[in-house]
Design brief:
34% helix, 24 helices, Rossmann fold, single chain, globular, 6-stranded antiparallel sheet, 6-stranded mixed sheet, alpha+beta
Length: 873
């Protein structure tokens, strides 16, 4: 009978209701100890356990919908280090857009469970659709749903339903696919012709269809052409390439990499002033920043290049000061060498406030309530009266009235859903001018005030309270950052911010005091530590004991307010986070480290390019550049630690990191080896990095390089009597064969030597040429000695794949050896010929674990029988 439990790599999963049937005593006792010590709390109780067979680590997992959903989502986890009675870490996924999910859940319970057959049927259907062909990234809900959709299906309950042409693009809440994370790291314009300043205008929502654009000093017109192709109204002028074009005012003006090529300081100022006069709303300015070694010869206040062109370089701080001195306006730094200068004060206020405003609040709150199919509460039902014959007509009238009210509510629900989303995004009920579809609301509901009353009566007000706390924190943060700049008068604040201040704080002075208090909290290590622990529990970064919290910059806006203030103080000193990927909050020292990497999203192990260590309390910073011979670029390992499961590509990154960790090549703590050293270690293990995956090596190794801990490839290839006698090269031609020989060595031969001592290989790899000279006792299509070599038609000589060898342990009963292999090792096939004869053993990725004893018939022919160990397993 099948025992409950599922093993994935080193992890063993079991539902707690089936724990008593777990045969692994160590796992069972460790899980029982963790479950017994689980503290009472308001959190969802764990119902599944995960035990790491290699380290002994226990995780208790909460899947509230384990019995209701075919692929239940993880809501919380508690991790226990070996020997610890209390959890060493806690993580909640309650607001995750892409939580981990559980597959093949029937394996976690007893086969006698009444739901076992139904759940097994769901798994078989998923297998038949090919959903388990590649399991690297299916462990997260969003990835799983996309995979199902790519196969042409969708989940309806526990049924896979073919997708038709009429599938709606909403989930009934008024949101388009609310489970989809906002891809904030992607820009709407990715054409190579679009410059960085213009891309930042689009990314920040300042340039969109309907606004006019003018490129002052457009060069060859790449930005203008690219924007025009995208449907924007774009024009440009350049004194050299497009001098005949007219210079026209526009909503958005770009002065991209112009002032840095003008050698005359006076003309430089004139160009900057003229361009800004054209801007109705905002101007973007781009310049070149100082590099490690500016090219060219010093000339005036810049450099003259070998092509006789001029370049004026700036530091980030110098650039900001220059713009503000010339234009008498605040410059907002949005990227290295890129700044926005606003001509319209209202837009400037909205932009600055928006930089400290959390994104996707409504979406996250609604996604957290996904198990609730309908966000609208049921109409309150009056208490049922005692029924009499005389009261029957009244009851019918009442039921009719209730049904009519329910129908009216259902008819306007889509409009109310959208209005509710606006309220959640604001953290308060909106004013009429904040609702884009106000005409539709009035027409559908009857009046805007009535619509708000329906929201108050039928929608979950606790969500609005949560949103209000988030938005209040946004305002506190904005008020805190304004302590570093000239604070605008209340009447000059944008209308939304004025309403927020009134709703959350009552008046401007109270809001400013709240910002000041937030700055004071950001200076207290105890409060920083508590906030870091809270952030880590939400999956926002990697908490290194009580020393630091390290996370991707995209998650900063989701941090507790005190941490956002801490980061904001540091980023004000450095001016921009746009090129930063990782942020490290030092809990006790008052430091903030900002890190920039090459290829952060394109490679699983990015290289550090620049590290900025900001001394928040001293208002100073140091910059460290990497990439020279003296300071090579350090590699970032275990990148998924610093990301959240909502981040694009997280599932692939986590699968890669787990694969590297399974190889045991990285230290648990510390820097880790240089990337080239890791590549050498991977190659020694017949692995290589391809895109975002760890895959089998495609190279041919040197024959004298190590194949496992005890052999070389030459020893695995040149070990048979016939090969020695004839001196045949017997070389494998395919990298896959070397991979298979390596797997045989580390999975079977090395453990065997660790237990019994030295062994002698009597027959290993057999090429086609060698097999021709062995007349008896070989079956190349079955015995796996040909490993992964192919025949003339390109098919595997042996369909089983893997690799095989014959071996002898001197002075040892080979039956004892065979028994030990069968009981302890992940072999594929084993053939036992006698107590003093070599054993044939093979290994392949899918192990059949079949053992046979070879007997000789009366006619002298060998035939196999099922092998039975002396001590039954």
């Amino acid at each position: 009978m099948r025992l409950p439990g599922k093993t994935v790599a080193d992890e063993f999963y079991i539902h707690l209701s089936a724990l008593k049937d777990v045969e692994n005593k160590t796992a069972r006792q460790a899980i029982e100890c963790a479950a017994a010590g689980q503290a009472e709390s308001g959190d969802t109780a764990p119902n599944v356990a995960k035990f790491n067979l290699r380290t002994g680590r226990v995780s208790l997992l909460a899947y509230p919908d384990f019995f209701d959903s075919p692929f239940p989502a993880l809501v919380a986890s508690w991790t226990y280090a070996p020997g610890f009675a209390a959890p060493t870490s806690y993580r909640t996924y309650s607001e995750s857009l892409n939580p981990p999910i559980l597959h093949r859940k029937e394996l976690l319970i007893q086969a006698s469970h009444p739901e076992y057959a139904r759940w097994s049927a769901v798994t078989r259907t998923a297998e038949s659709l090919g959903l388990f062909d590649d399991v690297a990234t299916i462990g997260f809900r969003l990835n799983w749903e996309r995979l199902i959709a790519s196969k042409g299906y969708r989940l309806a309950g526990d049924q896979f339903v073919p997708i038709g042409n009429d599938v709606a693009d909403t989930d009934g809440t008024g949101f388009v696919d609310p489970a989809m994370p906002v891809q904030r790291h992607l820009t709407a314009l990715s054409r190579s012709s679009i410059s960085a300043p213009v891309q930042l205008l689009v990314r920040h929502g300042l340039l969109f269809a309907g606004r006019t654009f003018f490129d002052y000093g457009c060069g060859r017109g790449g930005d203008v052409a690219g924007l025009t192709d995208e449907g924007y109204e774009a024009k440009g002028w350049d004194p050299h390439y497009l001098s005949e074009a007219s210079i026209e005012p526009a909503d958005v003006v770009n002065l991209g990499f112009v002032i840095n090529v003008i050698e005359d300081p006076a003309e430089r100022i004139e160009a900057l002033a003229k361009a800004f006069q054209l801007a109705g709303i905002v101007m973007s300015v781009g310049v070149m920043l100082y590099g490690a070694d500016p090219p060219g010869k010093p000339f005036r206040d810049g450099f003259l290049t070998s092509r006789k062109t001029f370049q004026k370089y700036f530091s980030q701080a110098e650039f900001r000061d220059y713009l503000e001195l010339v234009l008498h306006r605040s410059a907002v730094m949005v990227g290295p060498g890129v700044a926005f200068v606003f001509a319209d004060s209202d837009t400037e206020q909205r932009f600055i406030a928006g930089r400290y405003r959390s994104c996707g609040v409504a979406t996250r709150l609604l996604v957290a309530r996904v198990p609730r199919a309908n966000p609208v509460r049921e109409l309150k039902q009056p208490r049922e009266p005692r029924l009499t014959r005389a009261s029957e007509p009244a009851r019918e009238l009442r039921e009719t009235a209730i049904a009519s009210a329910e129908m009216r509510l259902a008819a306007v629900r889509p409009v109310l859903d959208r209005l509710w989303a606006v309220a959640l995004d604001l953290g308060r009920y909106p004013d009429p001018d904040e609702v884009e579809n106000l005409v539709e609301v009035n027409a559908s509901v009857g009046a805007f005030g009535k619509a708000l009353r329906l929201l108050a009566e039928h929608y979950d007000q606790s969500l609005l309270q949560t949103a209000a706390r988030t938005r209040a924190d946004d305002v506190r943060l904005l008020m805190a950052t304004q302590r570093f700049a000239k604070r605008p008068a209340y009447r000059r604040l944008e209308p939304r911010l004025q309403r927020d201040i009134k709703a959350y704080f009552g008046d401007y002075k109270a809001a400013q005091d709240a910002g000041l208090n937030l700055l004071a909290d950001a200076a207290e290590p105890a409060k920083i530590l508590a906030a870091c622990k809270d952030a880590a529990a939400q999956g926002l970064g990697w908490l290194d004991a009580e020393h630091s919290l390290q996370l991707h910059v995209s998650m900063v806006e989701r941090l507790p307010a005190v941490l956002r203030a801490y980061v904001a103080c540091g980023s004000i000193l450095w001016n921009s986070l746009s090129e930063v990927q990782l942020v490290k909050i030092h809990i006790a020292s008052g430091k903030l480290t900002l890190m920039e990497f090459d290829g952060f999203d394109e490679t699983p192990i990015p290289l550090l390019r620049r590290r900025i260590k900001v001394q928040v309390r001293r208002l100073d910073y140091d910059v460290f550049e990497y990439g020279s011979a003296a300071y090579p670029q350090p590699a970032l390992y275990r990148k998924s630690r610093y990301l959240n499961e909502d981040y694009p590509g997280y599932a692939e990154q986590q699968a890669f990191d787990e694969a590297v960790d399974r190889e045991g090549l990285l230290p648990e703590v510390g820097q880790g080896p240089p990337l080239h050293a890791l590549a050498d270690m991977l190659e020694a293990n017949r692995l290589t990095i391809n895109d975002m995956r760890l895959v089998p090596s495609t190279s041919i190794p040197d024959l004298d390089s190590r194949c496992g801990a005890n052999f070389t490839y030459r020893a695995m290839i040149q070990c048979g009597e016939t090969q020695h006698r004839l001196g045949l090269p017997n070389l494998p031609l395919r990298p896959a064969t070397y991979n298979a020989l390596h797997a045989l060595a580390i999975k079977v031969l090395d453990p065997l030597i660790d237990y019994f001592g030295s062994i002698r290989l009597t027959y290993g790899f057999a090429s086609v040429e060698l097999t021709k000279h062995i007349r008896r006792g070989v079956a190349p299509k079955l015995d796996q000695h040909a490993a992964c070599e192919q025949g003339r038609r390109g098919k595997l000589i042996c369909d089983r794949g893997g690799a095989a060898c014959d071996l002898l342990v001197e002075d040892e009963d080979m039956r004892v050896v065979a028994d030990w292999i069968i009981e302890n090792l992940p072999f594929d096939r084993l053939y036992y010929y006698g107590s003093d004869r070599p054993i044939h053993v093979s290994y392949s990725p899918v192990q059949a674990r079949q053992g046979f004893a070879m007997y000789r018939s009366g006619l002298g022919r060998l035939f196999p029988r099922r092998y039975t160990t002396v001590i039954p397993i």
